[in-house]
C-alpha cells in the first residue's frame, strides 16, 4: 500500500517539509510541492488568511465568501488603506448560487475583473462542492496530480454547514482538501493509503483526533500519538480518538476505513 505524506507547510511562509523530505504533501514520489488552491467560505476567516492566499495559485470565493474577503481582509491590515487592500486581495473567481453575496461586493469585484459563475440553477450541491468541481475541471494551469485545496472559513457557524463541508471531503476523496479555521484543520485520510503526518509543532498541535466517517473503522493502527491505536475498532457509539496528543514529529495512521484527521492550530 502506498504512503501518503502530509505536512501543514501552508501555515508557514516557506515549506520546511519540502526541504526535509522529498514529496512532502505528496504521495511518496519525487515531485514538486503541492499546487495550492484556496476557497474562501462565508464564515469568519482565519487570521492567517493572507498567508494561505500567498501560497495559492488560484483563489476562489464561494458565494458569500466574497463578503468576508471584502469586509474582513482589510481588518487584518489596520494601518493600510482598505480600498488598496481590497484591490490587492481580489479573487480570480466567485462561484455559487449567489444567494448570499451583496450586490455592491459583486459589482466591486466585477470591475476588478473577477469571473462570476452563477450556478443558482443547482440547489443539490453546496457552494464548496461547486468550487471544488470548478478547480478540478476548469483550471488547466494547476497540476492536478499534486493538487491541494485549502478551504478557509470552513468550520464554525451552523453545524449543518460544517457537516456539508465534511461531506465534500468524502465526495471528493481522491482530491486532497483541507478545511481550516482559526482553531484547527480537518482533512480526510483515505483508506487506500497509509499515512505519514509531519507535525509542525511551531504552528500546530498538540491536540489532535482521528474520527471514522461514513462507516465504522474495524482496524486502525497509529504511531506517534500519546494514546496510540493498535488494530483498534472505532465507531460512533463506541470509541473514537478525540482529545489525543501528537507527541512525535511524525504520526503514522493505517486504517481499513476513511478517517478524519484533525489537529489544533496554535495561537500567536
Provide an overview of this structure.
The chain has helices spanning 16-20, 49-55, 65-72, 82-88, 103-112, 127-137, 159-171, and strands spanning 3-7, 35-40, 58-62, 93-96, 115-118, 147-152, 176-180, 184-189, 194-198, 204-212, 217-223, 232-234, 241-245, 250-255, 259-265. It has 268 residues and is an alpha/beta fold. The protein has a ten-stranded mixed beta sheet with strand order 5-4-3-2-6-7-8-15-10-13, sandwiched between helices. The radius of gyration is 18 Å and the shape is globular. The chain starts with a strand and ends with a strand. The model is unreliable at 20-29 (pLDDT under 50).
Compose a concise summary of this entry:
With 268 residues, the chain is an alpha/beta fold.
Task: Please supply descriptive tags for the structure shown above.
268 residues; alpha/beta; ten-stranded mixed β-sheet
List the helices and strands and how they pair.
Elements: E1 3-7, H1 16-20, E2 35-40, H2 49-55, E3 58-62, H3 65-72, H4 82-88, E4 93-96, H5 103-112, E5 115-118, H6 127-137, E6 147-152, H7 159-171, E7 176-180, E8 184-189, E9 194-198, E10 204-212, E11 217-223, E12 232-234, E13 241-245, E14 250-255, E15 259-265
Parallel strand pairs: 1-9, 2-3, 2-6, 3-4, 4-5, 6-7
Antiparallel strand pairs: 7-8, 8-15, 9-14, 10-13, 10-15, 11-12, 11-14
Percent range of helical residues: 10-25%
Rg (CA only): 18 Å
Mean pLDDT: 93
Backbone shape: globular
- The ordered H/E elements are EHEHEHHEHEHEHEEEEEEEEE
Kindly report the spatial arrangement of strands forming the biggest sheet: 5-4-3-2-6-7-8-15-10-13
Low-pLDDT runs of 5+ residues are 20-29
Distance from N terminus to C terminus (CA atoms, Å) equals 38 Å
Supply the helix-strand structural class.
alpha/beta
